[in-house]
Amino acid sequence: MLRPEQMSKVSVTGSRTVMAPVIETIHELNLVHLSDYDGSWEGFDNGNPIEGADQASEKLVTVRALENTLELSADEAEPGRLETGWEDRLEEIRTRVNELDDQRGEVTDELRQVNEKIDRVAPFAELGIDLDLLSGYESVDVAVVEGPVGAIEDAVAASDDVRAFETFTGGDVVAIVAAPTADADDAPIDDALVGVDVTRHSVPETEQSPEAYVADLEDEKADLESRREEIDAELAEIKREEAGFLLRVEEELTVEVQQAEAPLQFATTDRAFIAEGWIPTDDYDRLVAALDDAVGDSVEIEELERADYDRHGAHSHTEDVQEGAPSAADGDDAAADADDQQQKAVTDGGSTVTMGDEPPTIQDNPGPAKPFELLVQAVNRPKYSELDPTVFLFLTFPAFFGFMIGDAGYGILYIAIGAYMATQFDSKGITSLGGVAIWAGLFTTLFGFVYGEIFGLHILGEVVWHDLFNVELLPLNKGLEPAAADFALGWMVVSVLAGIVHLNIGYILDFYENLSHGFKDALFHSGSWILMINGIWIWIFSAQAEGSKPDFLFTTFASDGPFPIGFTGFPEWVLVTVPGIEFPLSAPLLVFLIGLVMLAVSEPVEIVESLDVVVNVFSYTRMGAVLLAKAGMAFVVNLLFFGAYEDPDGEFHFLRNHEPSYVAEHYGEGAEVIFNGLMHSGTAALLGGLVILVLGHIVVLVLGVTSAGLQGVRLEYVEFFNKFYEGGGENYEPFGTDRDHIED
């Protein structure tokens, strides 16, 4: 559908005594997108949470903290029932998990300290000196440092505070024993090494040898790691046994908190409440029936409005609603008071005034187009009041992508990758991208047959079109060979024509949207652009001033051109004249000028953008450019592996089935080998060539997404959407929670 699903604004009014069952019923339906009361009605305030909300929130925080500690995910348990007395069980789990988590934290901290000690003693092991020999001296200064040995010795030798010293080295680790002079400071070695890039190592306080010290630390480390594994095993056992229970408790508490905090969105008095929200129109009767079953006639339910679609303003009412607000049950004094209060709140000049929010958007597209909703939402969700462009994106983006890549081999791989993403992941975003990839792959495969290519080779053209169907016009050449250069320019022309059609669709949609303000407004605002884009491009493809226009505009579709349909341009048409004067103005240019004048009348400031009808169309030539670039990359990969030759007619052929010597034997001097190919250059070259062949095509496959994909999306977002689409709609988020873990 081109429109979001129709929404209705509903109001539920009743006494405070029935608010809790009303909230519970609405929550179970999971249908109503609640409106937030802004406090603007006289006599009404936002409601307060239901008693017990704080305690439920605290328990919910506790459960989620336990799930985080246990690294529990939502898909790790089957649905089940939540038995009574679950609070005591939850407290037991909390106590046990917290104790184990604290123990694990202590063990991890001790393990970190042991590892630091091992790291600190490692340099001393290189020296091979007992640790007790490196400390405890009064007459000499001892230091162990790590750095350039020569620079260290030179610096100490040059120090005026050291009268004698000795060094012991092991790799880059140096132990220095220095006798200071009488007037030296307390740390003469440190002073001497100020200008040298060294790391100072503190001597561990132990009388053991470094090897024995490290051995003891390794034993301690092993004990700590074993203890941590035991704790992890206990936590894993708790997770295995209690996963389902914790997920059910989280679900129950989530529901309880949502229901308890719902009054914050209501308008309330001491004795009554008013709740408003949006609901799909088709589900209104279901809401009424559910509330009637729950509380009978203790509440009044009213459909305040059915939102219509109006692009340039607020939603409009398609149904008249009763003046004033609904009251509660007859004879209920509290509800009567609510009726009096709400009358003041919602009546203004005889029109019902509600909480004033815009309807949320539910995108309603057919199944095949559903994955493309993700691409639309990447820009912005459509407003309720405007057309949803998803279907148009579904119809054009895969075609653009397929046109640019156009290779059956790559297309099949895109389909396979998309199918994997769509079926093997739970994320809606990834599955939607998988659906987009499948459609893009289908069109890539389709165009691959049109071009006769599979992984850059023209095998399909020979087998399918020539051998099976004896079709001469297909496959179409991409234009990489000099003999087929006309095709390269031809694809640019085809890209321009695709742009003209695509932009026309956008302007027509804008025209349709503006019809809500009258035909005149639509004609001048949107029709002007339709006249301008078609007028100027018909003139560009017309015979007037043909000599100053590129020849390929008229030869691309000529009978002897790359696409021989017999079109050589539009006629010049009769020039527009006035009595006695002939203006050099053809009919298409007149159409353009009429559109320009209409635009000046309706939107004068947009005159500066009138050249967009030319510039925006030229943007579509990027499709032809990507087509040639990707085909060229695949061509180079195949050329390196297979090699190629040019026959006497100037056509290229890969050396797939022949050795390079075949060219001279078969054609003589009329053909030329361009490159022998790695597959014909020995075993080592063949193996290297296979790597290049596989990696090269993988690169082309990936770059197809980043180039053709991004360029196609850009054309949709920047050129097409800007003609009729704004976005900025609110997502439909009904009040309620799906029960995934608690069985009914």
UniProtKB/TrEMBL annotation:
Bias-annotated ranges (Basic and acidic residues): 307-320
Transmembrane segments: 391-417, 429-451, 488-510, 522-541, 583-602, 623-645, 684-705
GO molecular function: ATPase binding; proton-transporting ATPase activity, rotational mechanism
Record-level GO BP terms: vacuolar acidification
Record carries keyword Coiled coil: yes
Primary location: membrane
Chain spans, region Disordered: 307-367
Keyword vocabulary terms for this entry: Coiled coil, Ion transport, Membrane, Transmembrane, Transmembrane helix, Transport
Residues in coiled coil: 83-117, 214-241
Biased composition (Acidic residues): 330-340
Matching PANTHER family: V-TYPE PROTON ATPASE SUBUNIT A, VACUOLAR PROTON ATPASES
Family statement drawn from the similarity comment of this UniProt entry: Belongs to the V-ATPase 116 kDa subunit family.
Designated name of the protein: A-type ATP synthase subunit I
Organism in which the protein naturally occurs: Natrinema thermotolerans
